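Lab notebook page, bench 4
Experiment: in silico fold of construct C2
Operator: M.H.
Input chain length: 477 residues
Purpose: comparison with the prior construct
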Amino acid sequence: MKNFLKKNWQWLLILLTTAVFLIPNLGRELLTDWDECLYSVYVQEMKKSGNYLINQWNGYNDMQKPPLYSWLLQIPYLAGKTEFFPRLLSVIAGLSLVSAVYFFAKKYLSKTSGLIAVFILLSIDLFIVYSQKLNTDIFYSLFIFLGFWLWLASEKNRRLIIISGFLFALAIMVKGLSVTPFLGVIFISIFFSFSKRRLIDFFLLISLILFLIAPWHIVTFLKYRQNFLQIYFWENIIQRSRYPIEFHYGGRLFYINQLLKEFFPWWLAGLSFPFWKKIRFNQLILLLLGLIIIPLFAITQVKTKISWYVMPILPFLSLFLAYNIELIIKKVNFSIFTLAIFVLLITDSLVNISKHSAWWQGKKTPSYRNQAAIAAKKLPEKNLYYLVAKSERLAKALLDQSPNLQIRSTFIYGGNPCAVYYSEKKVHYYYSTEEFIEQLKKKNRLFMIENGDLKIIEGLSIKKIYQNPEFTLFKTL
């Protein structure tokens, strides 16, 4: 261990520094809409219903993704209902990915490339932000990268195919079948220097993945039949691919522009002459390039554009650029230039980490709508009737004119999933003012409304329970 730490003290220092910045930040604010509160409710409803087969939210069977992440979240929630421990799971996954990138580069490229790749990865806003939030993408990226690494290692030890298949299966069970482009690149790479043995290995890999993911898919289909096919395959894969669901528009350059912005100025190294001169002699770099280009092409074809879809590409692109930067350093062969590059890399990563982890500023004040939900939690009613924000009602009116831009879960969350999590009630979201007014005729019910809509309740027999500058809780009498 002493020898290991002596050889890798830089990695350990980076890891500890990153942890010191990120971990104290985790409890600084309440969970945020959308995803953080969605995943937290999944955990709660699994426990309440005893149904661990699928994700459930506010009584809705949400089968867009397999439930592995919700299973993992059961562990930190054993410590109670807190923002800190569930987010800690993401930090652990993020630091694990940083470590995997470093040791992968050290084994297959060089220690210098490993350090450069780590600094580049830590300078990416998307990576740091999602390493502190509840999300499936950080684990998805970690499992894909480790699965790829174990596939490479299996060339010398075929038993590692089992672990590689297991890791790719975990990726699918976290986020779904979008792992396909990465497996496609691995298949193509077999023909770089064709070997019948590696082709057989690949089919063993695919067979193992299918074997591992089949039980959940089969059991869920047998239990939910058409609903499962509709939500999991049609809406979550096909419809998102064909249409910009819920106004998530973006042109063909959406992800390229995002990557150019996130990786500036380091992407400029990808244009360097030393790299393009050597690329055809390095099959590993060709493979890394394939793991960037083909998945990027695949998500570009998907009409629904969401920034975090690009997350699994980040470690591969960081390694690719790190290799290129090291070539430039060797080509220039000037110590002051090398020092300047590393100073810039370290500064860029530190600035980015500190920017997204200002824990020294103290806790953030909860949003007014979360304050209202927390106030509702203290009341005995089990149901909360909520007229959603005017902006959400307008969005529904627009989407109703374009049915292809919505799926069945579009209007389930009311634009405020945290209302369910923090109120701990069954929340009935109303997008129709008329339908909400009908509910007001019923006595002894708990309602939540934006203050801009208070004119709706003028003249009614109600009792105001709680009010802040934006929201009001009241009961009908």
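Observations: Strands lie at 55-57, 60-62, 383-387, 426-430, 446-450, 462-467, 471-476. The chain has a mean pLDDT of 94.
Next step: discuss at group meeting.
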